[in-house]
Structures are given as structure tokens and as C-alpha cells.
Amino acid sequence: MKKIILILLTALTLNQANAQGKKTEKATFGMGCFWCTEAIFQKLKGVVSVKSGYEGGKIANPTYEEVCTGFTGHAEVLEITYNPMQITYKDLLEVFWKSHDPTTLNRQGADSGTQYRSVVFYHTPEQKALAEKYKAELNATNAYGKKVVTAIEAAKPFYAAESYHQNYYKNNADAPYCRLVILPKLEKLEKVFKAKLK
């Protein structure tokens, strides 16, 4: 009996060590202009870092100017590194779907083009299953009054955007664009997700 207990305790200790060893995971979302959305995820508890960048296109190392043409096939995305012990992927999906309009194809507000498409780039089969389930529920309940058109695709190479795109709101909070477009999104975040904020 002592041997069985010792084996169980050893297995339990190894599982806990493995769980602690895997401290962060990645989530990648495209939801329009990354200037508008980066600051939202930066405010969430458990989010370690947020990088603005490009994903889903057909050329390597695209520039902002190339992506803006719409010809590269990339979307403006956020690569989010998070601690799953503090915030779940499901929580991140909830913020994703409630922070933009997932019913407009290749458009968010005044921004139009495939680079502004609503897309989830999943990194694991579990992320894919959760994203598909959440999208199906939104459509089944007619949550937006229109069909959710968000694409759900396997992660592709991520290319970090130029340095002036990173931490855009933090570095330009007083700019008219930030005050008129980004600040209202942050105010909504504070109301809807107050318990999840840092």
C-alpha cells in the first residue's frame, strides 16, 4: 500500500511540475486595426505581453505599407502571451468577440480591406475547438443579430510590426485618434470586464 501511495504522490508532483513549467501560452487574434485593440489586451490580468504584427499572408517579413495594400493577404493581428493559470483562452475569446464587430467581412469601422478581417489563428487543437464552439454559440443565439463571419485558421508565421506600432496607445494616449477611437473601447472594457483587469 505504501508503494502505491508513493507512486501516486510522485506522479502528482511530476504533473504539478509540468504544469508550472509551462508558464505561458500564445493566442493570436485579428480584429481590425491593431492600434485599436492592443491596449485592450494589455490591461487584462494574466496577459504577459501583446505584440502587434501581421499573419496569414503569402510573403515573408511584410512591411506595414505592403500589408496596407491588401495584396499580401496578411491581417493585422495581436500575438498575446498569457499565463493560463491567471486567464483562460476562453476568457481571451470572450474579450475578443466583445471588443469588435465580428459580423462585418473585411471591415472594422472606417477601416476596410482583408488586412482588417476578424480572425482567430489557433495554436492548438484545444484553441480551435473552443473558438469554433464559441462562434457556433454566438450564431445559434443570434447574439449580434447577424452572422459572425470570423475566420478560424491554424496559426501561420507571425511577423512583428514596426516598432512605432508597438504600445501605440501607451505612447500616444493624447493623440486625437487615441482619444476618439481607442479610449471608448477601453472605457467599455472597464465596464464589461472590470474583474479581469490588472
UniProtKB/TrEMBL annotation:
Q: Which family does it belong to?
A: Belongs to the MsrA Met sulfoxide reductase family.
One family from Pfam that matches here is PMSR
UniProt-listed InterPro entries: Met_Sox_Rdtase_MsrA_dom, Met_Sox_Rdtase_MsrA_sf
Q: Which domain of life is it from?
A: Bacteria
Described purpose of this protein according to its UniProt entry = Has an important function as a repair enzyme for proteins that have been inactivated by oxidation. Catalyzes the reversible oxidation-reduction of methionine sulfoxide in proteins to methionine.
Record's protein name: Peptide methionine sulfoxide reductase MsrA
Q: Keywords for this entry?
A: Oxidoreductase, Signal
Q: Which NCBIfam families match?
A: msrA
